[in-house]
């Protein structure tokens, strides 16, 4: 790490406030102020700071290694201070290649995860839902698909202290089937999917660019909202449904078990509302079934192809949202 990078890290990342004002100078969402113990930093924030200190080639190596360990990698990286542009890490992700067995294919393939077109599913939350979004994603990609538990996304319930600077990061991880699906009651995802995860509260105005990018890039948005604030978020939910390419799945998180002991699913146009039971496994099953129906619809017993797009193709979206593309820098 160069001297300039060390100075930037210490002044821009480890201080709670800067002369320009820190993006996250308020208390975290759990109500605990990190100012009480500024020497304790979450692993997410450490990673965020390190990625800002790297040159383009070292950043690419780190992101490749994270992907090799099946960890989520940042696609949109917020700046350290107010006024700094968000970065789209196209160059940083260029080195990531993965192998999997596509639907209806006999042999596995190896592809660049930047140029390969896949369905994109974005997870985000409004307010403080009582179901962990990252834990739910890990369940959908892991045990519900017959895989072992794996922390693809860092779960805030297991992260202490809560992340502060890395909020607003848009992460990506890939579900890649390795064997022929046995369907497991309809919850086995039919094919490969790019999953996006927007860190923090998507209602926060500071994350408006990331939210718009994540919605417009996605074929499906899975939105978590607590039942106590569901009615207050209807207008924002309508905006999300207008931006998303194909469908919005709204998970209304109940804090208690409903009297009929069943999740209620309501479909209207391009919006599906799932009034969930407070159990991750049950919610995850509902999401998997909905994704299969939305992304791989069946028409007259004939399976139709899913909507797909590559991460590389999202450059045009960055231009419209004033998001900096790292590949345009001279150092790349």
Q: Quick recap of the structure?
A:
By secondary structure, the chain is α/β, with parallel strands linked by helices. The protein has helices at residues 3-13, 43-53, 56-68, 133-141, 208-217, 234-243, 280-295, 315-320; strands at residues 73-77, 87-88, 97-100, 109-112, 120-126, 170-175, 193-201, 220-226, 247-253, 264-268, 271-276, 298-299, 302-303, 324-325. The strands form three sheets. The chain has a ten-stranded mixed sheet with strand order 10-11-9-8-5-7-6-1-2-14, sandwiched between helices. Strands 3-4 form a two-stranded antiparallel sheet.
Layout of helices and strands, plus pairs?
Elements: H1 3-13, H2 43-53, H3 56-68, E1 73-77, E2 87-88, E3 97-100, E4 109-112, E5 120-126, H4 133-141, E6 170-175, E7 193-201, H5 208-217, E8 220-226, H6 234-243, E9 247-253, E10 264-268, E11 271-276, H7 280-295, E12 298-299, E13 302-303, H8 315-320, E14 324-325
Oligomer description: single chain
Number of domains: 1
Rg from C-alpha positions?
A: 20 Å
Mean pLDDT: 83
Q: What percentage of the residues does DSSP assign to strands (E)?
A: 15-25%
Order of helices and strands: HHHEEEEEHEEHEHEEEHEEHE
The major β-sheet equals:
10 strands, mixed
Count of individual beta strands = 14
Spans where pLDDT lies below 50 across 5 or more residues: 1-28, 30-35
What gross morphology would you assign? globular
- Beginning-to-end CA distance, first to last residue: 18 Å
Count of separate DSSP helical elements: 8
Strand order within the widest sheet?
10-11-9-8-5-7-6-1-2-14
**Helix-and-strand structural type:** alpha/beta
Question: Portion of residues in helices?
Answer: 25-40%
Domain Up-regulator of cell proliferation-like: 41-332
Organism: Stichopus japonicus (Sea cucumber)
Pfam families: URGCP
Protein name: Putative interferon-induced very large GTPase 1-like
């Amino acid at each position: 790490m160069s001297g300039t990078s060390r100075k930037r890290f210490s002044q821009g990342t480890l201080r709670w406030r800067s002369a320009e004002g820190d993006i996250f100078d308020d208390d975290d969402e759990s109500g605990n102020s990190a100012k009480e113990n500024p020497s304790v930093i979450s692993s997410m924030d450490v990673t965020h700071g390190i990625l800002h200190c790297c040159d383009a080639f070292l950043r690419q190596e780190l992101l490749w290694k994270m992907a090799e360990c099946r960890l989520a990698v940042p696609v949109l990286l917020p700046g350290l201070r107010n006024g700094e542009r968000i970065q789209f890490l196209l160059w940083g992700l260029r080195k990531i290649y993965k192998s999997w067995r596509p639907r209806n294919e006999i042999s596995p393939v190896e592809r660049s995860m930047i140029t390969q077109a896949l369905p994109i599913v974005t997870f985000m939350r409004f307010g403080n839902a009582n179901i962990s979004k990252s834990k739910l994603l890990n369940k959908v990609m892991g045990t519900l698909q017959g895989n072992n538990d794996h922390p693809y996304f860092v779960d805030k319930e297991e992260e202490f202290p809560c992340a502060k600077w890395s909020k607003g990061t848009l992460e990506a991880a890939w579900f890649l089937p390795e064997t022929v699906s046995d369907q497991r009651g309809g919850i086995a995802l039919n094919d490969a999917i790019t999953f996006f995860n927007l860190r923090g509260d998507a209602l926060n105005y500071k994350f408006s660019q990331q939210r718009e990018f994540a919605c417009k890039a996605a074929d499906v948005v899975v939105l978590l909202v607590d039942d106590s604030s569901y009615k207050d978020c209807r207008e924002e939910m309508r905006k999300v449904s207008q931006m998303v390419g194909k469908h919005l799945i709204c998970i209304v998180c109940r804090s208690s078990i409903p009297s009929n002991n069943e999740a209620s699913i309501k479909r209207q146009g391009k919006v599906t509302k799932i009034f969930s039971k407070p159990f991750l496994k049950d919610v995850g099953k509902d999401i998997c079934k909905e994704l299969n129906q939305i992304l791989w619809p069946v028409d007259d017993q004939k399976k139709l192809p899913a909507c797909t797009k590559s991460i590389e193709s999202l450059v045009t979206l960055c231009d419209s949202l004033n998001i900096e593309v790292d590949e345009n820098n001279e150092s790349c």
